[in-house]
């Protein structure tokens, strides 16, 4: 196999719809280093920015997603790029997509389109995929709001990361206070939306792209996207699952039991997740958050185009299973199996 370089988020995404997407310092360098370390340990040819990377120093293992970082990886003969970063239209990597490179990750343009939650909701709804009822709120209309939805509601930014900026709202005063705050801070732009709060179980589903996979030492070809086993979330903070940068997912998540996985409701939501993944033509895993109503019917409420891929590869990172890894363990995969199967879905970037 060709040499592999892993990119992390080193540059701010452009302002889009009045929103500057949040950026973690060294965004995803921790998970990128987890990935690089695990693959190297298993004899995959990973190139690193420094000759003898220190296992405690994340940035020794990953390249910044800048011109300088990508050029350095190319100088080290990288031919495969794992885009473990925030993607968007006109991302620097787009300038290199005609260089016969192979890519692990989504196409930047596609991520840009589907990061808009209102656009994605509209697409899913028009394809009969169940989503919670929602309404758009803008800076112009929020003070004289006549909502059709009943409280409690969930307030969300249109472009955001995970559960950042997501708040459960119990009454009109709370809604106005929160809207005033987010519009005055300008952290999420001039629009937000509310959706009905569903009080049933919350699950998250990792959807893998179609392709060849190795499961229990057998090679299987999937001609459609397919779902890893659903993971349930618990220990919510006022009805909202905490951002995983704050609480390790192993402390508030577990794979559903065999009996739960066989229920009609879960099989139905799998089909909706697969259909969603087909609509957006995924090239790498995505993660879809779903929640049930009182009758147990699941609704899709968040499509995450870049699931976290942290893992317990380095000694000081032993409790860093991501939601996707928790899910993968249920089908017999360890961290390397998950990463290697993702790597096998790499696509050719030549135009």
Mind explaining what this structure looks like?
By secondary structure, this protein is α+β, with helices and mostly antiparallel strands. The protein is built from nine helices and 17 strands. Strand 10 and strand 11 form a beta hairpin. The mean pLDDT is 92.
Short description:
This protein is α+β, with helices and mostly antiparallel strands and 351 residues long. It has helices at 29-41, 67-75, 108-114, 117-126, 172-185, 258-261, 264-279, 323-329, 335-343; strands spanning 3-8, 63-64, 78-83, 102-104, 134-138, 153-157, 167-169, 191-196, 202-208, 211-215, 218-222, 226-227, 231-233, 253-255, 286-292, 298-304, 347-348. Strands 9, 12, 13, 14, 15 and 16 form a 6-stranded antiparallel beta sheet that branches. Strands 2-1-3-4-17 form a 5-stranded mixed beta sheet, sandwiched between helices. The chain has a 4-stranded antiparallel beta sheet with strand order 5-8-6-7, with helices on one face.
Helix-residue proportion: 25-40%
Annotation field: number of helices: 9
Number of strands: 17
N-to-C span: 21 Å
Topology (elements, then pairings):
Elements: E1 3-8, H1 29-41, E2 63-64, H2 67-75, E3 78-83, E4 102-104, H3 108-114, H4 117-126, E5 134-138, E6 153-157, E7 167-169, H5 172-185, E8 191-196, E9 202-208, E10 211-215, E11 218-222, E12 226-227, E13 231-233, E14 253-255, H6 258-261, H7 264-279, E15 286-292, E16 298-304, H8 323-329, H9 335-343, E17 347-348
Parallel strand pairs: 1-2, 1-3, 3-4
Antiparallel strand pairs: 4-17, 5-8, 6-7, 6-8, 9-12, 9-13, 9-15, 10-11, 13-14, 15-16
């Amino acid at each position: 196999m060709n040499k592999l370089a892993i990119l992390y988020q080193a540059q701010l995404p452009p302002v889009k719809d009045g929103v500057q997407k949040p950026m973690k310092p060294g965004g995803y360098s921790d998970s990128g280093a987890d990935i690089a370390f695990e693959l190297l340990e298993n004899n995959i040819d990973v190139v690193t920015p420094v000759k003898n990377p220190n296992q405690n120093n994340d940035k020794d293992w990953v390249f910044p997603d800048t011109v300088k970082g990508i050029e350095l990886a190319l100088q080290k003969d990288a031919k495969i790029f794992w885009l473990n970063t925030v993607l968007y239209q006109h991302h620097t990597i787009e300038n290199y997509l005609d260089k016969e490179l192979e890519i692990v990750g989504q196409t930047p343009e596609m991520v840009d389109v589907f990061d808009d939650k209102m656009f994605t909701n509209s697409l899913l709804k028009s394809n009969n995929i169940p989503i919670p009822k929602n309404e758009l709120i803008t800076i112009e209309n929020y003070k004289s709001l006549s909502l059709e939805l009943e409280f409690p509601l969930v307030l969300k930014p249109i472009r955001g990361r995970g559960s950042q900026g997501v708040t459960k709202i119990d009454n009109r005063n709370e809604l106005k206070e929160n809207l005033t705050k987010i519009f005055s801070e300008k952290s999420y732009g001039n629009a937000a939306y509310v959706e009905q709060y569903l009080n049933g179980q919350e699950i998250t589903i990792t959807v893998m792209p179609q392709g060849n996979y190795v499961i229990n030492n057998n090679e299987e070809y999937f001609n459609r996207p397919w779902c890893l086993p659903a993971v349930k979330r618990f220990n919510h903070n006022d009805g909202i699952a905490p951002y995983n940068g704050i609480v390790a997912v192993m402390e508030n998540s577990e794979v559903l039991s065999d009996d739960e996985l066989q229920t009609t409701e879960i099989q139905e939501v799998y089909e909706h997740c697969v259909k969603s993944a087909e609509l957006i033509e995924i090239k790498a895993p995505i993660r879809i958050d779903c929640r049930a109503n009182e009758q147990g019917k699941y609704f899709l409420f968040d499509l995450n185009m870049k699931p976290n891929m942290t893992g317990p590869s380095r000694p000081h990172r032993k409790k860093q299973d991501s939601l996707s890894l928790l899910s993968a363990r249920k089908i017999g995969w360890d961290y390397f199996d998950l990463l290697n199967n993702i790597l096998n879905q790499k696509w050719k970037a030549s135009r």
